[in-house]
Structures are given as structure tokens and as C-alpha cells.
Write a structure and sequence with these properties.
This protein is an alpha/beta fold. The protein has 2 domains: 178 residues, Medium-chain alcohol dehydrogenases, catalytic domain (Quinone Oxidoreductase, Chain A, domain 1); 133 residues, 3-Layer(aba) Sandwich (Rossmann fold), CATH 3.40.50. The protein is 26% helix and 26% strand. Strand 11, helix 5 and strand 12 form a beta-alpha-beta unit. Helix 3 packs across helix 4. It comes from Dimargaris cristalligena. GO terms for molecular function: oxidoreductase activity, acting on the CH-OH group of donors, NAD or NADP as acceptor; zinc ion binding. Keywords: Metal-binding, Oxidoreductase, Zinc.
């Protein structure tokens, strides 16, 4: 049996709960969990904010721990290895799968995300607020020795989410990049972008984060609530990475920061619809794209890049049994910048 903390219904606190682990398949491993970050997605899921959640649900998809069992066909990992798991735990990896074949395993039609999603056998995945988890070995990533295991946890969802578009759009020296929302994702986005050699403008609504943005590597900091500051950033960016979940985002304001042919990359999913005036982005040929986590290749590249360039989350740690306190701190916007729960 695996012991964890589950939400038994919408808006309810997490309670201790046990479940029988799925069978260990030939390409599966079992991980004894040491650490798990708290991601905004966990809270959307606990709240059924993105649609109905099937309860009970154990959330958590920034998992770090040790391999304690492995299937007969697993070659990449040995018992005792330190590994991390992000927001995905399975893709088919079949040669006739158009998306897996092209390295778009995130978009595999058989993809299983780390919690609240059905496996092909019908069982639903369960996440990392627990003492163990079983996953497909392809989705357990070796953690570079340079990275503290606690700090590795947030890299596996927040980190890969912000890194993937930077890799895909080939960020380079001279590019002008804005980051909106300096939180769990945004504080890593500033660091990764800086490490790609770009000029970073951090956009925040919290004046208290100004100094921290500079420490993280921002060249400029713009308070979105200050009309004068916002005006100075007009038409100044090639890319804008949007990590905020706020339903009150002023899209016309964000679009105004984009230079001709600039690209806005949406990484967070607010529970409300986006309100966009078509002409506002037509006028300067501005593009808006989304990006969802990252595939096997990208996660490996991200961990190496973070190790090499010293990109690390700023974390607060709590024991796993205080997961409800951690979640409340996230809801209250008090975290600087990621909570990591530890067993
Ligand atoms: Zn996440
Ligand atoms: Zn596939």
C-alpha cells in the first residue's frame, strides 16, 4: 500500500489516505519519495478548477526520490538512484505514434499525466504527496549531482514549463524577453532566460518583489499597475512569457509591450476564458502561442542546463504532513517562490 495525502472532494483539506499500488510493469519503477513541490496545478485539480476531478486524488508532480524497485526491462536506472518525476508519467513511445516519433511525447494521445488521469488499463494516476509512486521508467529522470534534491523538485514542472519554449524558440543573446508573473514559474523563467543570454524585463504587480527580480537576473522591472512604467515598456519585447494565473490579466496592456512580430507565450492556464481584442494583436503582427510542460528530451536538457548555469528555485520547505499549510501559503500568495514538501 502507498500512503499519501488525498483530497476527498472539492475544496476539502487533504487527509491521510492509502491506496493499493498499480502492478509494477516491465518498464516501471517504484520511487520512494523524498520531496515533492507544490505546483499551482495541484490546487486547480484539488478545486476541480479545470473541470471535474475524480476524487479521491493525490496531487503532486514535482517529485524527487530514490528507486526502490524496477521492472525486468528497465535499464536506465539502478536501485538506489536519485530520480525526479514531473507532470507526465507515461507515453506510448510506439513507432507508429506520430507525436512520440517526433519527440512530442507530451502530446501523445496515450499520454498519462502524473495525477487524476487514466492509464490505458483504466486506473487513475496518483501523484507525489505520498511516500511512494510507480511510474514508467522513461519519465524518471536522473538528477545531476550538482543539484540539491530539494531544489531539483520544482525544476521538474515549473522549471521545464518555462525552459521548453526558450529551447524551442532558440532564445539567444540580443533577444528582448519579458516575464509576467514572478512566482513559482516566473522566478525560474527570469533565471533561465538570463542564462540564455537575453535581456530580461520582469513584470510584476508587487512592488515588494522589485529587488528580488534584480537578484534573479532581471535587467528591468516594470510594475504593471504603474501606467508610467508600463508606457516605457511599450513595443520593447521580442518574447513575453506569461506565467500568471490571474483572471484579471489586462491582455491589451501585455500586447502593447510587443515589438512587431513579437511572440507571447502562455504557460499558465487561468480558470477563466481569455479576453482578447483581435485588432490589438493584428496591428503589430503579434503572435500568441501556448506551451505545455516538456518531453523526455527537453527535461533531460533542462536538468543539465540548470546544473551548468546554476539555475535553482528559491524554496521554502515543510514536512509532508503539513501539506495543507503549504497549500494555504500558495493560495495566499505568500510563497517565495516554491514550497517543497519533504518526507
Ligand atoms: Zn505543475
Ligand atoms: Zn505516443
Amino acid at each position: 500500500m502507498i500512503s499519501g495525502y488525498a483530497a476527498m472532494g472539492k475544496n476539502q483539506p487533504l487527509v491521510p489516505w492509502q491506496y493499493k499500488s498499480r502492478p509494477l510493469g516491465p518498464n516501471d519503477i517504484e520511487i520512494k519519495i523524498d520531496h515533492c513541490g507544490i505546483c499551482g496545478s495541484d490546487i486547480h485539480t484539488i478545486d476541480s478548477g479545470w473541470g471535474p476531478t475524480q476524487y479521491p486524488v493525490i496531487v503532486g508532480h514535482e517529485i524527487v526520490g530514490r528507486v526502490v524497485a524496477k521492472g525486468a526491462e528497465v535499464q536506465d536506472h539502478a536501485i538506489g538512484d536519485l530520480v525526479g518525476v514531473g507532470a507526465q508519467v507515461f507515453s506510448c513511445q510506439k513507432p507508429d505514434c506520430k507525436n512520440c516519433r517526433r519527440g512530442h511525447d507530451v502530446q501523445c494521445s496515450h499520454a498519462v499525466y502524473t495525477y487524476n488521469k487514466p492509464y490505458p488499463d483504466g486506473e487513475r494516476s496518483k501523484g507525489g504527496y505520498a511516500d511512494a509512486v510507480r511510474v514508467d521508467a522513461n519519465y524518471a529522470f536522473s538528477i545531476p549531482t550538482a543539484i540539491d534534491p530539494r531544489e531539483a523538485a520544482p525544476l521538474l514542472c515549473a522549471g521545464i514549463t518555462v525552459f521548453t519554449p526558450m529551447l524551442h524558440y532558440k532564445f539567444k543573446t540580443g533577444d528582448r524577453v519579458g516575464i509576467v508573473g514572478i512566482g513559482g514559474l516566473g522566478h525560474l523563467a527570469v533565471q533561465f532566460a538570463k542564462a540564455f543570454g537575453v535581456s530580461v524585463t520582469a513584470f510584476t504587480t508587487s512592488e515588494t518583489k522589485r529587488e528580488e527580480c534584480v537578484k534573479l537576473g532581471a535587467t528591468q522591472v516594470v510594475n504593471l499597475r504603474d501606467a508610467e512604467q508600463s508606457k516605457t515598456a511599450s513595443q520593447s519585447l521580442d518574447y513575453l512569457i506569461v506565467t500568471t494565473n490571474s483572471p484579471h490579466t489586462d491582455w491589451a496592456q501585455l500586447i502593447s509591450f510587443m515589438d512587431v512580430y513579437g511572440l507571447i507565450v502562455l504557460l499558465a492556464a487561468p480558470e477563466t476564458e481569455l479576453k482578447l481584442k483581435p485588432l490589438s494583436f493584428l496591428a503589430n503582427n503579434v503572435g500568441i502561442v501556448g506551451s505545455l510542460i516538456g518531453g523526455i528530451k527537453e527535461v533531460r536538457a533542462m536538468l543539465d542546463f540548470a546544473a551548468e548555469h546554476n539555475v535553482r528555485p528559491w524554496i521554502e520547505t515543510l514536512p509532508m504532513d503539513q501539506c495543507n499549510e503549504g497549500i494555504q501559503r500558495v493560495r495566499d500568495g505568500k510563497v517565495r517562490y516554491r514550497v517543497v514538501l519533504s518526507n
